[in-house]
Design brief:
5 strands; alpha+beta; 2 domains; single chain; about 15% strand; 5-stranded antiparallel β-sheet
């Protein structure tokens, strides 16, 4: 990698750090190509990205961002996962680490808040942004449904009473 490529890589990582909500640092302990591909696919499906970056270049890219505290995690064979959704990258990384012992969660950061491994696991256990939106829509929709049921209930009872009288007269 020559100097211009390194400069481009640092600029790209810096742009990513300025746009995302969460960054998760993982340690690769001998992932095969197939396992790495599966992890990248899982990340992409969750709306996250996963990249192996040189620690020195990542540390340069962290400067002047909210994620400066991640420098302490960048040693050894590390990779970065990030997403705009605060939960997506953490959830995908933790789910993959549960089934594959060659991926270790080192830590991460959600803005200026630095998280250790337990913090990332706690973040991963939270519902995603889409799940929260679904719950809010359900909560908003529930009272309207109940009002419609209450308004329609007397009319339904009247119809059943008239039906019973009609059946009684026919018999």
């Amino acid at each position: 990698m020559d100097r211009s490529q390194k400069t481009d890589a640092v600029a790209q990582l810096n742009a990513v750090f300025n746009e995302v909500s969460v960054v998760v640092v993982t340690r690769n302990l001998g992932l095969t190509v197939d396992q790495s591909t599966a992890l990248r696919t899982k990340m992409r499906d969750a709306g996250a990205s996963y990249k192996v970056a040189k620690n020195r270049l990542a540390k340069l890219a962290l400067k002047d961002t909210d994620y400066v505290g991640l420098e302490e995690f960048l040693s050894g064979p590390t990779a970065l996962a990030w997403s705009v959704d605060p939960v997506a990258a953490a959830k995908a990384a933790v789910d993959f680490a549960k089934t594959n012992d060659k991926l270790e969660i080192v830590g991460g950061s959600m803005g200026t808040v630095v998280l250790d491994e337990a913090g990332i696991r706690a973040l991963a256990s939270m519902p995603s942004l889409d799940e929260l939106r679904g719950k809010i829509v359900g909560l908003i929709n529930a009272p309207a449904t109940k009002i419609a049921q209450v308004v329609n209930a007397p009319a339904a009872k009247l119809a059943r009473v008239f039906g019973a009288y009609a059946a009684k007269d026919a018999a």
